[in-house]
């Protein structure tokens, strides 16, 4: 058997010493806000530099199949379980590009059946990263000037901007939960993808935040109630 030094040739940027290690820090929010490095931010470059693992192919097939109606019986909720550095954020970025941006069959060749590609970008896509949220002071959205404090507030704002946030403003400012009816109004009859990452980090921070209307209940508890609804 030949050694790896003979069978694998490093990419040109590696040989030239031009590869920066910081580009390997995948951040879903950077991709959503269109400020990520090209290797993550541009769909064509991203998929070109991504290996189509079985897990990633299954995730794209199930999710896109559900959203496009090609696989109506696909799971409505999927949980990604990998070790640290196992590719969860990378997989979420792949989902974001495949749903929110216009991708071609050639871009995702080997990743998913071309018939599963949405005919047009899906409008209702939210990617919540718990470690980016600030339960104590809120997360300021520069585009609208709105500061979200809760999971439901962030989801509503990402899905429908100011209009969506107004549906949950009272609950967000009061740090109280919301029921399924609110999400029914937020989503309506459109295909919708909500991705949650690093929720454990958010819940840890939120456990020390009391709800204004009921000091005996903390924000972590109301967040879990929202997730279970």
Number of strands: 6
Beta-strand percentage? 5-15%
Order of helices and strands: HHHHHHHEEEHHEHEEH
Q: Specify Rg, calculated over alpha carbons.
A: 20 Å
The helix fraction, in percent, is 40-55%
Low-pLDDT windows of residues: none
| Strand order across the largest sheet | 1-4
The average pLDDT score comes to: 89
How would you characterize the overall build of this protein?
By secondary structure, the protein is mainly alpha-helical. Helices cover 44% and strands 11% of the residues. It contains eleven helices and six strands. The strands form three sheets. Strands 1-4 form a two-stranded parallel ribbon. Strand 5 and strand 6 (214-218) form a beta hairpin. Helix 6 runs parallel beside helix 7, helix 8 (151-174) packs across helix 9 and helix 10 crosses helix 11. The model has no long low-confidence stretch (mean pLDDT 89).
